[in-house]
Here is the input.
Amino acid sequence: MNEINNNIDQMTLINNWQQVSKQMKQACAHTDRQADDVMLLAVSKTKPADMIATLAKQGQRDFGENYLQEAIEKITTLKTQPVGENIVWHYIGSIQRNKTRDIAEHFDWVQTVERDIIAKRLNDQRPNGLPPLNVLIQLNIDNEDSKSGCLPSQLPELIKIMKEYERLQLRGLMIIPAKANTDAFARTKQLFDEVKADYPELEHWDTLSMGMSGDMTEAIENGTTMVRVGTAIFGQRA
Ligand SMILES: *Cc1c(COP(=O)(O)O)cnc(C)c1O
Here is the structure.
């Protein structure tokens, strides 16, 4: 008997993914950006490996996961399939210290680094056989007490430390803005550009991860280079 779940069927999934891609293209055209300026990260947390495989076969390359145990199971399953070979895995959940080794060993990107102790551990634990781990600094752009992320005032200090880590490749910034915050995207884009100007030695500083299902158009209009989309592709999460 089939396991009971509320997951959408394969045709709906593919259709959603095409719709999101189209919406991204339209937002790019609307703001005079090239369609390939903005990457789509498909956020597959809580969704099964076969849904990921379906989209990977359509050409979706990047997938984001929040829950480590669940993610490792899916990564391990898909690694054994031809379609899994090209998938790029992004860790976008919060990071406890004791989770850094698993993250360093299984993922290609980590978007949620916010302090040096975590960065140092990821650097030390990244296996030598793998390329450097791509890292984004999660920024608490709204200075919210409840939010994780590095405060804007602490960003220069963290960058100075992290740019020396040879097993990490510092790629840019990620934010989850406060709801109803209208200018977080623009302020983050400005900070992102300032870092690029201030640290020419950061050759791979090219990624600004902001925008989700509900606000990807605004994010694209404000200069994002990567939107992280879950619900609009995979449907509601249980
Ligand atoms: C779940 C999640 C998303 C996707 O959110 P949707 O609203 O479902 O598109 C994006 N970013 C992070 C960090 C998430 O945890």
Observations:
- The chain has one domain: 10-234.
- The beta strands are 39-43, 62-65, 88-91, 109-113, 133-138, 168-174, 207-209, 226-229.
- Residues 189 and 223 are 6 Å apart (CA to CA).
